[in-house]
Design goal:
The chain is built from 2 helices and no strands. With about 80 residues, it is mainly alpha-helical. The radius of gyration is 25 Å and the shape is flat. The two termini are about 45 Å apart.
Length: about 80
Amino acid sequence: MKKTILLLAFLITLSITLMAQAPPAPPSTGNSGGTNGFVGGPTGSGAPVGSGTLLLLSLASLYGGKKVYNMRKSLEA
């Protein structure tokens, strides 16, 4: 019980003391010729989330299929 309380106190203290840094300043909107563009690239070209999602879903379905196959195999024996 003491270990749990000490661990919880340590994690709470750690999360309070290690704060994240402030977000960056927004890009300038003037025509000064600067290189400050949109954060993360031009509008409409965000991170390629689609391919990562497809990969995650395919690996999860393969894992689930393997688990079902192993379960059926063990029930037959």
